[in-house]
Amino acid sequence: MIEEGKPAPNFELTSDSGETVSLADLRGKPVVLYFYPKDDTPGCTKEACAFRDNLPKFGAMDAVILGVSKDSLDSHAGFIKKYDLNFTLLSDEDLKVNNLYGTWVEKENYGKKYWGTERSTFVIGRDGKIKKVFRKVKVDGHETEVLEALS
Length: 151
Known about the structure:
By secondary structure, the chain is of the alpha+beta class.
């Protein structure tokens, strides 16, 4: 279980640009690591666009935004192009990082159980420690909560 004040588990994932992104390489910058269920779906699009629209505010804090889903790099490329997203999306097709952060969970909808990504955000401080954990995120206003957690 990921806890505030503890070191953020390191990982490496491939980004939408094809580069390997390592959390360790971002030490010294605040990181907003957010996990979302699926590219180009209503809630995920709204969340991504809210981060996009507020990127100058995150940039003023020197924060890096990383979106993670199990979607492929091709899916990410389409999502980025369609909504003009201006931050990095990471592909976690094998769910290693979802499992590392405890976001791949059993869910239930209309009595049907299935496995999926729990919309979650982890604010990681410059020191590499978890500053704030948001689980079961409600999209509306979430970017404001994250900005407050960074300040």
